[in-house]
Amino acid sequence: MGEAVIGVLADVLDTEIAAVTPDTEFSSLEDWDSMAALEVLMQLESELQLQLNLRNYNELRTVGDLIGLAEAELAGSDS
Amino acid sequence: MMAASDVLLSVKRAVRAGEPLTRPKLLALAESADPMTFRQAGRALAGVDAAVWGLRPVKVGLLTTATAGPLAHILRAALVSGGMAPTFTSGDYGAFDLLLSAADGPPFIGQDVLLCLLDDAYFLPRDWAGSDVAGLVAFVDERVAAFGRMVASAAERSGTTILLHTVPLSSVVRDTFISWRDRAALSGCWARLNAALLGLAEIQGIVAVDLVGDLAETSVSARDDRLKQYADIPYTDGALMVLAKQVRRFAQAKAGLSRKVLALDLDNTLWGGVLGEVGAAGVTLGGLYPGNSYQQLQRTALRLRDQGVILALASKNDADQVESALRDHPEVLLRPDVFSASAVNWQPKAGNLKHMADQLDLASGSFVFMDDSPFERGHVAEEAPEVTVVSADGDPAYLVRSLTSGGWFDTLELTDTDRKRPELYRTRMERGEFAGTFGSSVEYLAALDITVTVTKAGEFDIPRIAQLAARTNQYNLTGIRFGQPETAKMAADPAHLVISWAVADRFGDEGVVGAAWIDRAGETWSVLNLVMSCRVLGRGVESSVLGWLANQARAAGARVLAGRFVPSGRNSVAAEMWTSAGFVRTADATEATEAEQTYTLALDNTADLVPSWIKLVER
């Protein structure tokens, strides 16, 4: 899951995968704005075939938070 | 068709390497139905150099009633897939009416086309009373009329072509009315709105896309309420992709990139079945499914011809048999005289297409080629990448959609010249066989990874071998049809040998395609008959099998490999098999022996007959 999330972030922001870790804060990423955030959301939802709650998504602080949210969503939709 | 992820990978790789994407890969992108592929490919393609990639530069103005979101990315991917490199000029968010009524700002000036992205909220009031549907309808009617006046005036004053689209009404709006009569009134009003938008296309300089109609046949949701509420983005990537494909079709026609010629394969494209195997009476055409699907494709081709598309025939068959089938079959709609050019022979199709282009005095880039065989499509994509290749593979029910959905023949206006063009070209051209030969390049064949697997016939192979003998009329060297009992007897007899062979390449497995019966009693091995499906011609399969036989015979101590050719009137395609593999016609070639020709190959110092591009396996 972590790999998929980081892959999408690196792809959307056009940076190296190594530059993004679970501890990275979104606000510290270059070119991070509301459009980029939506772009990441759309791509992630399409790749992982899930739908996130936008309100929860907007409150995330770190990449690790996003991985956690996606994992929780996937676990929830499985049960 | 390439998988969505493969298309995206090929785009990213090409951009990273700074190398243009090949035309067939661009076509794969155009045909992709995955919105995320369009969005990501469009983002990757942002810096593409039009000159290096050989793309036509187009300037596109964007004017949106809400947030454009990923519109530019998705549009870019679509336009590049059609051979164009766009530069975008966007109007500011919230300034739609201002910019449209002025019509002199940057989104208009100097643009090839201005796209207005409209959403339902633009035509609706901010609020309305649930009890007053009449008031809402009156508001919408007035708003559409005002919009129409504004667009018409903008088109006239700016001289820039304006592209509009029909607008879906969100069910969220419709369902706030709980009475059936009120909902019908609102839907009726919305249908009038879309009719009015389409009606604007009668004005010079305005074009309208029926987005609502397209969305009805697309398996994507048009809206994401989260995007609308959070970012005022009215459409999903999927809906934008559907629109972008239509913009591509329009821009392509405007840039002069419309295709002019439709080259059609025959067997399993214009009818079901293989003419050479089942005869004209045996092909599937007309009546119920699947015959109706093939006939509808013929009808569609005819309708395209009415509108100026030149039809050409590209079929591996015997020309005489095709001519009479097209003339005499009662369900055929495409009679021989509707084709302005025709290449019915056993030569590779890429060469045939180029030759027809020369004859018609048109560029082969103006050709669309439709064929069910992945081998033929791959061959043309490789040897003539400028040709637009359309698949006729799979369920025949999709034939018409496959042909028309790309919009390759779209034209801005239909003129009298268009309508007369096919006849013009037909009379200008001498119909007939092509004399020249066009070799398949060894590189292409090598890239196919062709494997020929030869099997000495065992119990389980006999039925298929007998079936091949019974059904093969064209590539049948002597016409002798060894049945199941004879074949089984020979297979068990040490003085005889029965073999079959299967062919596979990177497009897939053709299965068992040929068989041969050999008398190996003495120092001369004699091929009593050899049959092969015409599907695999032109790949050196027959040479590799003869090579295998020669090696076997030599190893067994034989000195000569011999074979015969008996003309049957239908097997001319096989006439050259022996000589092209290096066999020599026996000296007593008289009229009497013309009906039964004998060929021999001395085995003492012959080179390997197996072509370099074929991997020969014995099982």
Oligomer: heterodimer
Q: Low-confidence segments of chain B, ≥5 residues, pLDDT <50? A: 430-439
The arrangement of helices and strands of chain A along the chain is: HHHH
Average pLDDT score of chain A? 90
* Contiguous helical run count of chain B: 26
Taken from the alpha-carbon principal axes, the silhouette of chain B is elongated
Low-confidence stretches of chain A: none
Percent strand of chain A equals: under 5%
Portion in helices of chain B: 40-55%
Query: What's the Cα radius of gyration of chain A?
Result: 12 Å
Give the class of chain A from helix and strand content and strand pairing.
mainly alpha
* Strand order within the widest beta sheet of chain B: 16-17-15-14-13-12-11-18
- What's the end-to-end separation of chain A, in Å? 18 Å
Secondary structure: number of strands of chain B: 18
Give the DSSP E fraction of chain B (strand runs of 2 or more residues).
Answer: 15-25%
Distance between the termini of chain B: 32 Å
